[in-house]
Write a structure and sequence with these properties.
Elements (H helix, E strand, L loop, with lengths): L1 H21 L1 E2 L2 H6 L6 E3 L20 E3 L20 E3 L20 E3 L20 E3 L20 E3 L20 E3 L20 E3 L20 E3 L20 E3 L20 E3 L7 H10 L4 E3 L5 H8 L6 E3 L20 E3 L20 E3 L20 E3 L20 E3 L7 H10 L4 E3 L1
Parallel strand pairs: 1-2, 2-3, 3-4, 4-5, 5-6, 6-7, 7-8, 8-9, 9-10, 10-11, 11-12, 12-13, 14-15, 15-16, 16-17, 17-18, 18-19
């Protein structure tokens, strides 16, 4: 009997401890009352101008969200949060990072987007466990050589900075799977770029690239390449080695000829080469080289019609920047669709047939005119990423709690009240939500 009682006590203690690990504190005062058992703290949008010094008392802290405050400087004390794994400082007023910041040896996720950072410390290379780094919309001109030490890095987003080049050590990031660097000032890529053999998705649009290195052909796992709005006048022959490539966007460049080697890209489903210098003969040739590919010569709605002709094989569809005001019900016929990009259109609602896209994992609807998210979105059980930034949402339907696999939800630039933001966190307790 005593053994049974002891077992029950141990079990209760274990369950209680696990519950504490999942609890997200939203009050520092409350957290300090239980400081040895606080793992997650959310102080986002609380008008902080600095990080409270007392936070360092939370020795077990693993998750810290300080998004949407007015913090312009980090004290050296932040380096004492030795167990921190996730740090969100998005939408603050930071200009630089202290060297002590790089004492956070267990840090895995770092969110620094929408600050005023102009330089990263050389010591950032000490954060060997970093897997996800987001530093969009800052003023960074260079990445330190030590950046190449981040060999566990899986996703890097440096969109909308002022980068003119990448260090040669960048090729050491052999675990990198997703890389987003659109809206910078790159004129070339290092030859070592070809060492990034885990890369699956790259967006290097809106730069100054005149060519791609021959080593680009070494990226054998690449599935998704967007390189629009550059100065490319040719495509390297080595692109023929990218056997897994499914989506290739080269629109708004200066390409006058397509290499015959393109015919080797048998998995390519979506090619956009609008806004180049291709002759009518070259366009016809591309159709012969890629008979099963949806080829878009003009950035228009046409690509959806082509996708519907190959509906069983389409798993990625990119319809961004098309001035779309509505989608047809027929989009629900794309039963194998996994990624749907509808950014920068004029959509106000979605057709009910969207609920039929049972395999959909990524849905990007940022920069549209959506006022209400329909309830049937909650039926997209496989959805992992939903981007609703910069719309006109005032609330979310309760049905959204049905998105059990949703990992990331982007909601910045909407009209959500603080109460509605809290409600969304309750509906999706295991989802990372960015306001």
């Amino acid at each position: 009997m005593k053994k049974l009682i002891t077992l029950i006590i141990v079990l209760i203690a274990y369950i209680s401890g696990r519950a504490q690990e999942h609890k997200i504190y939203t009050s520092l005062q409350e957290a300090l009352l239980n400081k040895d058992q606080v793992y997650k703290l959310n102080l986002s949008h609380t008008n902080l101008t600095e990080i409270p010094k007392s936070i360092v008392q939370l020795k077990q802290l693993q998750y810290l969200n300080l998004e949407g405050n007015k913090i312009n400087q980090l004290s050296d004390a932040i380096g004492n949060l030795k167990n921190l794994k996730t740090l969100n400082l998005r939408k603050n007023k930071l200009v630089n990072l202290p060297d002590s910041f790089c004492n956070l040896q267990h840090l895995e996720v770092l969110q620094l987007s929408e600050n005023q950072i102009n330089k990263l410390p050389e010591s950032i290379g000490n954060l060997k466990n970093l897997g996800w780094v987001f530093i969009q919309e800052n003023h960074i001109e260079t990445l330190p050589e030590s950046f190449g030490n981040l060999t566990q890095l899986k996703k890097l987003d440096v969109t909308q900075n002022e980068l003119t080049h990448l260090p040669e050590t960048f090729g050491n990031l052999t675990s990198l799977q997703e890389f987003y660097i659109e809206g910078n000032q790159l004129s070339d890529l290092p030859e070592t770029f070809g060492n990034l053999k885990s890369l699956e998705a790259i967006n290097i649009s809106n730069n100054q690239l005149s060519d791609l290195p021959e080593t680009f052909g070494n990226l054998k796992n690449l599935e998704w390449l967007i390189c629009k709005d550059n100065k490319l006048d040719h495509i390297p022959e080595t692109i023929a080695n990218l056997f897994k490539l499914k989506l290739l966007y080269l629109n708004s460049n200066k390409i006058g000829e397509l290499p015959k080697a393109l015919e080797n890209l048998t998995k390519l489903k979506d090619l956009n080469i609008s806004g180049n210098k291709l002759s009518t003969a070259q366009k016809e040739r591309s159709k012969q080289l890629l008979p099963n590919c949806n080829i878009n010569f003009e950035n228009s709605y046409y690509s959806l019609q082509k996708a519907l002709q190959h509906k069983k094989s389409v798993d990625i569809l990119y319809l961004s920047e098309n001035k779309l005001t509505e989608l047809p019900e027929s989009i629900g016929e794309l039963k194998n669709l996994q990624q749907l990009y509808l950014t920068d259109n004029q959509l106000e609602n979605l057709p009910k047939s969207i609920e039929k896209l049972k395999k959909l994992e990524t849905l990007s609807l940022s920069s549209n005119r959506i006022i209400t998210l329909p309830k049937f979105v909650g039926k997209l059980k496989n959805l992992q990423e939903l981007n609703l930034n910069d719309n006109q949402l005032t609330s979310l339907p309760e049905a959204i709690e049905g998105l059990k696999n949703l990992k990331t939800l982007y909601l910045s630039g909407n009209n959500l009240s603080e109460a509605e933001k809290e409600r969304s966190k309750q509906l999706l307790p295991n989802c990372s939500i960015e306001f």
